[in-house]
Amino acid sequence: MREFQLDTEGFGRLAGLRWPARPGAPRVLALHGWLDNAASFIPLQGHLPGIELVALDLPGHGASAHLPQAAEYTVPNAARAVFAAADALGWDRFVLLGHSLGGAIASLMAAAMPARIERLAVIESLGALAEDEGDSGRRLQEAFAAEATPRRPLRRFRDPDTALRARLAAGGIGEAAARLLVERGIAPVRGGEDPPGYAWRSDPRLTRATAVRMTEGQVHDLLAAIECPVRVVYASPAQPYFPEAQRQARFARLRDGSLVTLEGGHHLHMEQPGAVADAIAGFLAG
To answer: Which of 93, 113, 155, 181 is surrounded by the most beta carbons within 10 Å?
Structure first.
Protein backbone atom coordinates (compact mmCIF):
# COMPACT_ATOMS: atom_id res chain seq x y z
CA MET A 1 0.00 0.00 0.00
CA ARG A 2 1.27 3.45 -0.80
CA GLU A 3 -0.04 6.99 -0.65
CA PHE A 4 -0.49 8.94 -3.86
CA GLN A 5 -1.49 12.41 -5.00
CA LEU A 6 -2.89 13.44 -8.37
CA ASP A 7 -3.04 16.93 -9.81
CA THR A 8 -6.38 16.98 -11.61
CA GLU A 9 -7.94 19.31 -14.11
CA GLY A 10 -10.44 21.53 -12.27
CA PHE A 11 -10.49 19.71 -8.92
CA GLY A 12 -7.04 20.38 -7.52
CA ARG A 13 -4.96 17.75 -5.80
CA LEU A 14 -6.71 14.46 -5.03
CA ALA A 15 -5.12 11.86 -2.78
CA GLY A 16 -5.64 8.25 -1.88
CA LEU A 17 -4.16 4.79 -1.38
CA ARG A 18 -2.88 2.49 -4.09
CA TRP A 19 -2.08 -1.21 -4.21
CA PRO A 20 -0.10 -2.02 -7.41
CA ALA A 21 -0.46 -5.42 -9.06
CA ARG A 22 1.04 -7.39 -11.94
CA PRO A 23 0.97 -5.76 -15.38
CA GLY A 24 -2.36 -6.26 -17.07
CA ALA A 25 -4.28 -6.78 -13.80
CA PRO A 26 -7.81 -5.36 -13.68
CA ARG A 27 -7.76 -1.68 -12.72
CA VAL A 28 -10.32 -0.89 -10.03
CA LEU A 29 -11.10 2.63 -8.82
CA ALA A 30 -12.70 2.50 -5.36
CA LEU A 31 -14.94 5.26 -3.95
CA HIS A 32 -15.77 5.53 -0.26
CA GLY A 33 -18.86 6.72 1.57
CA TRP A 34 -19.89 10.12 2.90
CA LEU A 35 -17.40 11.51 5.47
CA ASP A 36 -15.25 8.36 5.15
CA ASN A 37 -11.98 8.19 3.20
CA ALA A 38 -9.75 5.86 1.20
CA ALA A 39 -8.91 3.81 4.32
CA SER A 40 -12.42 2.39 3.98
CA PHE A 41 -10.97 -0.19 1.56
CA ILE A 42 -7.93 -1.32 3.55
CA PRO A 43 -9.66 -4.39 5.10
CA LEU A 44 -11.17 -5.46 1.79
CA GLN A 45 -8.02 -5.09 -0.30
CA GLY A 46 -6.29 -7.94 1.50
CA HIS A 47 -8.94 -10.29 0.13
CA LEU A 48 -8.65 -9.05 -3.47
CA PRO A 49 -5.32 -10.39 -4.79
CA GLY A 50 -4.36 -9.75 -8.39
CA ILE A 51 -6.28 -6.48 -8.67
CA GLU A 52 -4.75 -3.04 -9.07
CA LEU A 53 -6.85 -1.17 -6.54
CA VAL A 54 -6.80 2.61 -6.30
CA ALA A 55 -8.87 3.99 -3.41
CA LEU A 56 -9.52 7.70 -3.85
CA ASP A 57 -10.17 10.31 -1.18
CA LEU A 58 -13.16 12.08 -2.72
CA PRO A 59 -12.97 15.91 -2.92
CA GLY A 60 -13.26 17.41 0.56
CA HIS A 61 -12.47 14.08 2.24
CA GLY A 62 -9.30 12.60 3.69
CA ALA A 63 -6.16 14.13 2.22
CA SER A 64 -7.84 15.47 -0.93
CA ALA A 65 -8.30 19.17 -1.61
CA HIS A 66 -11.50 20.93 -0.62
CA LEU A 67 -13.61 22.35 -3.43
CA PRO A 68 -13.48 26.12 -4.01
CA GLN A 69 -16.04 28.13 -2.08
CA ALA A 70 -18.24 28.64 -5.15
CA ALA A 71 -18.32 24.91 -6.01
CA GLU A 72 -20.90 22.54 -4.55
CA TYR A 73 -20.51 19.02 -3.24
CA THR A 74 -22.98 17.15 -5.43
CA VAL A 75 -22.99 13.64 -6.88
CA PRO A 76 -22.57 14.86 -10.50
CA ASN A 77 -19.67 17.12 -9.48
CA ALA A 78 -18.03 14.26 -7.59
CA ALA A 79 -18.41 12.06 -10.68
CA ARG A 80 -16.59 14.67 -12.76
CA ALA A 81 -13.82 14.77 -10.16
CA VAL A 82 -13.41 10.99 -10.25
CA PHE A 83 -13.20 11.00 -14.05
CA ALA A 84 -10.55 13.72 -13.70
CA ALA A 85 -8.64 11.45 -11.31
CA ALA A 86 -8.89 8.57 -13.79
CA ASP A 87 -7.55 10.86 -16.50
CA ALA A 88 -4.61 11.80 -14.26
CA LEU A 89 -3.93 8.09 -13.71
CA GLY A 90 -3.97 7.55 -17.47
CA TRP A 91 -6.93 5.18 -17.19
CA ASP A 92 -9.33 5.29 -20.12
CA ARG A 93 -11.39 2.21 -19.19
CA PHE A 94 -11.61 0.79 -15.68
CA VAL A 95 -13.76 -0.96 -13.10
CA LEU A 96 -15.63 0.97 -10.42
CA LEU A 97 -16.19 -0.13 -6.82
CA GLY A 98 -18.26 2.10 -4.57
CA HIS A 99 -19.62 2.05 -1.04
CA SER A 100 -22.62 4.17 0.01
CA LEU A 101 -22.07 7.68 -1.42
CA GLY A 102 -19.25 6.22 -3.49
CA GLY A 103 -21.71 3.75 -4.98
CA ALA A 104 -24.08 6.59 -5.86
CA ILE A 105 -21.24 8.42 -7.62
CA ALA A 106 -20.11 5.26 -9.40
CA SER A 107 -23.68 4.53 -10.56
CA LEU A 108 -23.94 7.98 -12.11
CA MET A 109 -20.52 7.62 -13.76
CA ALA A 110 -21.50 4.33 -15.38
CA ALA A 111 -24.69 5.91 -16.73
CA ALA A 112 -22.96 9.10 -17.91
CA MET A 113 -19.97 7.58 -19.74
CA PRO A 114 -20.68 3.89 -20.39
CA ALA A 115 -17.76 3.52 -22.81
CA ARG A 116 -15.28 4.11 -19.96
CA ILE A 117 -16.68 1.72 -17.34
CA GLU A 118 -15.99 -2.00 -17.75
CA ARG A 119 -17.87 -3.23 -14.68
CA LEU A 120 -19.52 -1.69 -11.63
CA ALA A 121 -19.70 -3.11 -8.10
CA VAL A 122 -21.64 -1.25 -5.42
CA ILE A 123 -21.92 -1.98 -1.70
CA GLU A 124 -24.89 -0.69 0.27
CA SER A 125 -25.85 1.66 -2.55
CA LEU A 126 -27.34 1.84 -6.02
CA GLY A 127 -28.07 5.28 -7.44
CA ALA A 128 -28.21 8.52 -5.47
CA LEU A 129 -30.51 9.60 -2.65
CA ALA A 130 -33.82 10.76 -4.11
CA GLU A 131 -36.66 12.93 -2.93
CA ASP A 132 -40.27 13.59 -3.89
CA GLU A 133 -40.58 16.60 -6.19
CA GLY A 134 -42.99 18.20 -3.71
CA ASP A 135 -40.07 18.73 -1.29
CA SER A 136 -37.94 20.66 -3.81
CA GLY A 137 -38.82 24.16 -2.60
CA ARG A 138 -38.22 23.36 1.06
CA ARG A 139 -34.89 21.71 0.29
CA LEU A 140 -33.68 24.65 -1.80
CA GLN A 141 -34.60 27.15 0.93
CA GLU A 142 -32.82 25.09 3.60
CA ALA A 143 -29.69 24.77 1.48
CA PHE A 144 -29.46 28.49 0.75
CA ALA A 145 -30.11 29.34 4.41
CA ALA A 146 -27.29 27.00 5.45
CA GLU A 147 -24.89 28.74 3.05
CA ALA A 148 -25.70 32.09 4.66
CA THR A 149 -25.00 30.79 8.17
CA PRO A 150 -21.50 31.55 9.50
CA ARG A 151 -19.25 28.54 9.79
CA ARG A 152 -18.72 27.08 13.23
CA PRO A 153 -15.11 26.55 14.35
CA LEU A 154 -13.76 23.08 13.71
CA ARG A 155 -14.19 20.77 16.65
CA ARG A 156 -10.83 19.94 18.22
CA PHE A 157 -9.90 16.70 19.93
CA ARG A 158 -7.20 16.35 22.53
CA ASP A 159 -5.77 13.22 20.90
CA PRO A 160 -6.70 10.61 18.25
CA ASP A 161 -8.41 8.37 20.81
CA THR A 162 -10.81 11.19 21.68
CA ALA A 163 -11.66 11.55 17.99
CA LEU A 164 -12.17 7.79 17.79
CA ARG A 165 -14.62 7.85 20.69
CA ALA A 166 -16.54 10.64 18.96
CA ARG A 167 -16.78 8.58 15.78
CA LEU A 168 -17.94 5.52 17.69
CA ALA A 169 -20.56 7.61 19.49
CA ALA A 170 -22.06 8.46 16.09
CA GLY A 171 -22.82 4.74 15.73
CA GLY A 172 -23.01 2.31 12.85
CA ILE A 173 -19.42 1.06 12.92
CA GLY A 174 -17.10 -1.04 15.08
CA GLU A 175 -13.91 0.15 16.72
CA ALA A 176 -11.38 -1.47 14.34
CA ALA A 177 -13.06 -0.04 11.25
CA ALA A 178 -13.61 3.35 12.86
CA ARG A 179 -9.95 3.57 13.86
CA LEU A 180 -8.82 3.19 10.23
CA LEU A 181 -11.13 6.00 9.12
CA VAL A 182 -10.18 8.28 12.01
CA GLU A 183 -6.43 7.81 11.55
CA ARG A 184 -6.71 9.01 7.96
CA GLY A 185 -9.49 11.49 8.63
CA ILE A 186 -7.85 13.72 11.26
CA ALA A 187 -4.84 16.05 11.23
CA PRO A 188 -2.96 18.04 13.89
CA VAL A 189 -4.09 21.65 14.36
CA ARG A 190 -2.45 24.56 16.14
CA GLY A 191 -3.23 28.21 16.64
CA GLY A 192 -6.08 30.19 18.13
CA GLU A 193 -7.03 30.22 21.76
CA ASP A 194 -7.46 26.46 22.04
CA PRO A 195 -4.51 24.18 22.85
CA PRO A 196 -2.98 22.06 20.06
CA GLY A 197 -5.02 19.04 19.11
CA TYR A 198 -6.62 17.26 16.18
CA ALA A 199 -9.51 18.06 13.85
CA TRP A 200 -11.28 16.37 10.96
CA ARG A 201 -9.67 17.05 7.59
CA SER A 202 -13.00 16.81 5.76
CA ASP A 203 -14.63 20.00 4.49
CA PRO A 204 -17.37 21.13 6.95
CA ARG A 205 -19.52 22.04 3.92
CA LEU A 206 -20.03 18.31 3.31
CA THR A 207 -22.62 18.31 6.10
CA ARG A 208 -24.77 20.99 4.47
CA ALA A 209 -28.05 20.11 2.84
CA THR A 210 -27.92 19.43 -0.91
CA ALA A 211 -29.81 22.12 -2.82
CA VAL A 212 -31.41 19.79 -5.40
CA ARG A 213 -32.04 16.05 -5.41
CA MET A 214 -33.30 13.81 -8.19
CA THR A 215 -36.68 12.15 -8.00
CA GLU A 216 -36.91 8.38 -7.74
CA GLY A 217 -38.08 8.24 -11.34
CA GLN A 218 -34.95 10.05 -12.50
CA VAL A 219 -32.76 7.63 -10.55
CA HIS A 220 -34.54 4.70 -12.21
CA ASP A 221 -33.92 6.18 -15.65
CA LEU A 222 -30.20 6.64 -14.92
CA LEU A 223 -29.88 3.07 -13.67
CA ALA A 224 -31.53 1.79 -16.85
CA ALA A 225 -28.86 3.67 -18.85
CA ILE A 226 -26.00 1.65 -17.32
CA GLU A 227 -24.65 -0.70 -19.98
CA CYS A 228 -21.95 -2.62 -18.10
CA PRO A 229 -22.47 -5.61 -15.77
CA VAL A 230 -23.31 -4.55 -12.21
CA ARG A 231 -22.77 -6.50 -8.98
CA VAL A 232 -24.83 -5.18 -6.07
CA VAL A 233 -24.12 -6.11 -2.43
CA TYR A 234 -26.78 -5.17 0.09
CA ALA A 235 -26.55 -5.58 3.86
CA SER A 236 -29.45 -7.11 5.73
CA PRO A 237 -31.43 -5.61 7.35
CA ALA A 238 -31.90 -2.61 5.07
CA GLN A 239 -31.04 0.89 6.31
CA PRO A 240 -34.03 3.19 7.05
CA TYR A 241 -32.98 5.69 4.38
CA PHE A 242 -32.70 2.93 1.74
CA PRO A 243 -35.65 0.60 2.49
CA GLU A 244 -36.00 -2.87 1.03
CA ALA A 245 -38.76 -2.02 -1.44
CA GLN A 246 -36.76 0.89 -2.85
CA ARG A 247 -33.50 -0.96 -3.22
CA GLN A 248 -35.18 -3.94 -4.89
CA ALA A 249 -37.04 -1.64 -7.30
CA ARG A 250 -33.76 0.04 -8.24
CA PHE A 251 -32.01 -3.26 -8.80
CA ALA A 252 -34.80 -4.31 -11.16
CA ARG A 253 -33.95 -1.38 -13.45
CA LEU A 254 -30.47 -2.72 -14.28
CA ARG A 255 -29.93 -4.29 -17.69
CA ASP A 256 -27.26 -6.71 -16.45
CA GLY A 257 -27.33 -6.91 -12.67
CA SER A 258 -26.56 -9.58 -10.07
CA LEU A 259 -27.43 -9.23 -6.39
CA VAL A 260 -25.85 -10.59 -3.19
CA THR A 261 -27.37 -9.90 0.23
CA LEU A 262 -25.26 -10.40 3.36
CA GLU A 263 -26.18 -10.08 7.00
CA GLY A 264 -24.36 -7.13 8.51
CA GLY A 265 -24.21 -3.39 8.96
CA HIS A 266 -23.69 -0.49 6.58
CA HIS A 267 -19.86 -0.81 6.69
CA LEU A 268 -19.90 -4.56 6.08
CA HIS A 269 -17.02 -4.22 3.56
CA MET A 270 -14.83 -3.15 6.49
CA GLU A 271 -16.25 -5.44 9.15
CA GLN A 272 -16.85 -8.55 7.02
CA PRO A 273 -14.28 -8.09 4.26
CA GLY A 274 -13.91 -11.79 3.54
CA ALA A 275 -17.61 -12.30 2.84
CA VAL A 276 -17.80 -9.16 0.70
CA ALA A 277 -14.68 -10.20 -1.22
CA ASP A 278 -16.27 -13.60 -1.91
CA ALA A 279 -19.21 -11.72 -3.43
CA ILE A 280 -17.21 -9.37 -5.67
CA ALA A 281 -13.65 -10.66 -6.26
CA GLY A 282 -14.43 -12.81 -9.29
CA PHE A 283 -16.69 -10.13 -10.70
CA LEU A 284 -14.04 -7.40 -10.38
CA ALA A 285 -11.46 -9.61 -12.06
CA GLY A 286 -13.79 -10.12 -15.03
So the answer is: 181
